[in-house]
Amino acid sequence: xxxxxxxxxxxxxxxxxxxxxxxxxxxxxxxxxxxxxxxxxxxxxxxxxxxxxxxxxxxxxxxxxxxxxxxxxxxxxxxxxxxxxxxxxxxxxxxxxxxxxxxxxxxxxxxxx
Length: 113
Ligand SMILES: [Zn+2]
Prior knowledge:
By secondary structure, this protein is mostly helical. It has 3 helices and 2 strands. Bound molecules: zinc ion.
């Protein structure tokens, strides 16, 4: 993961928050990895609801998985990345079960018609 000084733009070494060039404190620097972790977590939360409609469940679940995996190396949001990862897997399974049940119900109603 790469961080850059928010003041002068110099690349910061890993784990370094104070810029060696301008001494600027960079606590508020959000790296791409941290963002991915956060997006993965949010998509994980969305999939708690979206699995009810399998198409949305698959979309949010798979996207959330990708972002969570990308965000796994995040120092700040590692917990969120893991939570997002678990949520996405659980609700991908829900989506799968839901779509299988949907197919069975459709087949049954087809036979009864
Ligand atoms: Zn700087």
